[in-house]
Design goal:
single chain; alpha+beta; Thiol Ester Dehydrase, Chain A; 2 domains; 5-stranded antiparallel beta sheet; 5 helices; 21% helix; elongated
Length: 259
């Protein structure tokens, strides 16, 4: 590209030595296209599966989607094809967190040919953290943001520049600001926005507490992460066995008086 200031590509050894190996495999006939080399869709797949492993590493997994009702969507990706992969070649994917904003994250994957010791491709991905209920962008919770930040700080210790294309970025970086960030209110979630349970479902004498999707405390402030139950929809503040404090709080929030 004329006038490009893109950083130089790292060598095979630089990537293999500095970045974590996330995924690897052998090229099979099914990976090939009519040109006799790995089809472009598989490079994206290698990067996508690697990305999912990174997401699971910071807590964004099946339980996260089910219990906290949040997840991640891919908004954009950019692939650079650099060297062919053929049948029998050993491929490796090394993927890192690059940066994040309050609601989006940038990842970069390096696909290596371990057989020829060459860099085969780079895949940049832009991910957006979303609510699984209204499908809109949602701020990373503090605990997840801290985990992502720690991994970004590791990436920043690499002694060579990342070969980013420049076509995508997160805008304003929020790395290191997870502690100061105010969490997005969750009162706007579609009803039923409350889950209900007690600390022991076998004991009918215990009050039913309310917890919002994505929160780790009940409405009345009791830590609920260690309870032996699965939350059930939905909390009805009119229930006679409902916790009195939870009931008062739920009734006081507009739109939450019925579920």
């Amino acid at each position: 590209m004329v006038g490009s200031t893109r950083p130089p590509l790292p060598t095979y050894d630089q990537v293999a030595e500095a970045l974590p190996l996330v995924l690897e495999g052998d090229v099979a006939e099914k990976h090939l296209d009519y040109n006799g080399h790995v089809n472009m869709r598989h490079y994206v797949k290698f990067a996508a599966v690697s990305s999912d492993r990174l997401l699971r590493g910071v807590g964004i997994d099946d339980d996260y989607r089910a219990e906290r009702r949040m997840g991640s969507f891919t908004a954009e990706h950019h692939v650079r094809y650099l060297a062919e992969l053929h049948v029998g070649d050993r491929w490796q994917a090394h993927t890192v967190w690059v940066d994040r904003s309050t609601k989006a994250a940038h990842q970069l994957s390096f696909v290596l040919n371990a057989s020829s010791r060459r860099l085969s491709a780079t895949v940049e991905m832009m991910l957006v953290h979303v609510s699984m209920d209204d499908r809109r962008a949602e701020a990373f919770p503090k605990d997840v943001a801290r985990r992502i930040d720690s991994r970004i700080e590791r990436t920043r210790q690499i002694r060579w520049p990342l070969p980013l294309g420049g076509a995508m970025d997160v805008g304003v970086s929020a790395v290191g600001r997870s502690e100061a960030r105010v969490e997005t209110p969750r009162a706007a979630l579609p009803r039923p926005g409350w889950l209900a349970s007690s600390s022991d479902l076998d004991d009918a004498g215990l009050p039913r507490h309310a917890r919002r999707f994505g929160e780790d405390r009940t409405a009345c402030g009791e830590a609920a992460t260690g309870w032996r139950y699965r939350w059930r929809p939905a909390f009805d503040p009119r229930e006679p066995v409902a916790c009195a404090r939870c009931r008062t709080i739920v009734w006081s929030i507009p739109g939450s008086s019925s579920v």
